[in-house]
Amino acid sequence: MLVIDGKSLIAKEGDTILAVAKRAGIHIPTLCHQEWAEPQGGCRLCCVEITKKSWDGWCKVVTACNHPAQDGLIVYTHSERIITIRKNIVDLLLARCPESEVIQDLAKEYGILETTYKRRENPDNCILCGLCVQACEAMGVNAISMTDRGINKRVTTPYDKPNNVCVGCASCAKVCPTNNIPFTESNKTRKIWDQEFPMLRCTVCGRAHITQAQMEKLVADNVLPRDYFDKCEICHQKETVETFKKISF
Amino acid sequence: MKINSLADYNTWQQAILKDRPLDGKKVLICCETGCRAAGSLQVAEQLEKLIKENKIPVGVERVVKKTGCQGMCEKGPIVWIMPESIFYCSVKEQDVQEIFEKTILKGEIVERLLYKDIDSKCSCKHHLDIDFFKKQQLVILKKMGQMDPTDIQDYIRFGGYKTLVEVLTTQNPEYVMQQIEQSGLRGRGGGGFNVGRKWRSCKAVEGPRYVLCNGDEGDPGAFMDRSIMEGDPHAIIEGMVLGAFAVESNKGYLYVRHEYPLAIEHLTIAIKQAEECGFLGDNIAGTDFSFHLSINRGGGAFVCGESSALMRSIEGKVGEPRAKYIHSTEKGLFDKPTVLNNVETWANIPVILRDGAENFRKIGTVKSPGTKVFSLVGKVKNTGLIEVAMGTTLREIIYEIGGGIIDNRPFKAVQTGGPSGGCLPADKLDLPVDFDSLTEAGSMMGSGGMIVMDDRTCMIDVARYFINFLIQESCGKCTPCRDGLPQLLYLLDKIREGKAVMADLDKIEELSKVIENSALCALGKTAPNPISSTLRYFRDEYIQHIKEKKCVAGVCTALTSFNITDNCKGCTACSKICPVDAIQGEAKAKHQINQEICIRCGSCYNVCKFDAISITKRNEQC
Which of A66, A148, A151 is closest, CB to CB, to B323? Predict the structure, then answer.
């Protein structure tokens, strides 16, 4: 049992503060958090204030995404201190990524139209949340990682060179909360991380649906059989629906 | 020699002592990093050669030893002749012959090599005539200058590993745990957490457990841990084995930064020797207890000194901190219960068990018992490694041990606790140095760096230096530290360049608070400390920079001009030292600084003996 913004809530084993708040419909902003990923506590946007009765009025700031929803916690998600922190973090992120629409929209929520800090020179939209790296790891590829540190930290392939382990799955690009990883796609190829990957086309609808390299990897890893990739996901789904129709009615 | 019992140990120790008594004649030459850089290895080699080659009066045994640090790094190479305790400093290769002929053969003193007392200018013949040593209380560093760190027999001679053998053969883990708890020892790495409590909470969790030593010292101007690792590696190993015995762990790691090659070398040798002698490895001292120790080299990231980053680094992952909502004593290295203490803390363990918790508590203060090693550096006459009882005042450290400020200039501030520490002003000089009083005063103990500053130090410049250091060392994982610190630097630079307005100062304070509250790890949370503490004690200086566009210390070049006053005697010292030839004038006549050429380095100010250079606002005449 814990209290978030005055509401008494029940927590399950292994719950974080964020998970409990979400279930109760209490909004805590996040950027680097995804259900599938290990919480990093990197962007610090989900900061909340916590206290306990026994703490004698003392509060501390923690990140809701990875703090366990312990019994007896009293959580404030929008206290004055938290709002100041969040405003400044959004402001710092806007100075870091002034052209990112996601960050701009977030900043507007906090009444910031223009950053009060110094804009980063040659900015991109990367907020270094590391979701792309985690996604790549989850795919079993590990083609990209963080390099350097501090303000110079960035996501890249080893030595900034095209990496032959990359299968061009574009998972990194798809999970990026600020759309910072560019890729282009035609019916024949996908271009990502300075490499061109030939695409396989669906034998039913003709859509280019997966890179040859990713298919090879999934087959080699015994995830799916080779002939599965003759059809795209959508056509597979359609086929399943048709099968169901035949079976049940 | 493999030790299997206390009797084995005693026999071996007596044999060593008979061969090489403690009060025997010997020449001790410091061969640690500082003295080594100044050429002590060559001095040692030459002296060894001379002693070997020449016929020495019968019955006199003379040994040249390569010892660990004796503390006075600035005056290295140090040659210390025992048992007379004659202390020579800044010894060069060409002095060796004279030392050999006069002091070693005839017992005469080479006057010019003696340490000169800074104020009285008298030569100090003996080690303990020197204020720097006289006022210290050596516990951890006691053996260091007298022992060859690569020779385990030397450590045994001073009673090393005796405590370990005694405890392991006659006591149980609970005894060690209780002794450490009763001693009240607090971690020397910075936070000052109670060591006994840490061990106890680790032991409460199901194993396997790990025991780690944090040797990733990286604070600018700090070299305490390096010196202990280089000079007394066996003390750390003994401490770790005792700690492992207490928490029932069988595996430990020493995390040492790669930039400390000599420390790694000496620790590697020490581990090998300890294993050979049965003080480490399987069945230590013939008991059932086994403990293995390996060295992990850090890649030189400051953040890897942070406990969770250090553990990730040992695991072979990127050395980044993780949120510590679960203590590492519960889930630490490889998610197993882990005890992590720093080098100096481990070196304290054998001392506590040897002397007993009660005796340990007699030194220092009630809440911070024991001694603390500091590296005393900056604008102080005697710099080096010092050890004092907790509770010693800053004044005693700076003025009695350190001998006061260079050129007797006014004291301005002392920075303690490393980059995340803070600066304390003159009215805090009588503050007793212990964990709580330093934190209360807005600084911290940190691992024991102490940088003394004189009136020629600009506090905004100091804050900028540390913030810049932290920007370089921030891991970049969390937004406030990664993106906030460069913004602080930018605002500080605005102040230094005279472009800031008062609103910038408000912004600095707001952002500092945000970083302090919201950063992920302790490094980030304490990163604004250089600003908060200088603002707390030197706010006027910030305001003066912003409103009056003036830097009283004459450091911020955009706000400073140097002018020559009527005090000038025309000694030409300033014109000779000026790196850009901006000073003109005839000898014995008043000189002039060409403001167009002057780069505001302040060399003239520092060299002038007649107080004839004045610091003014930019483009203002005195």
Answer: A66
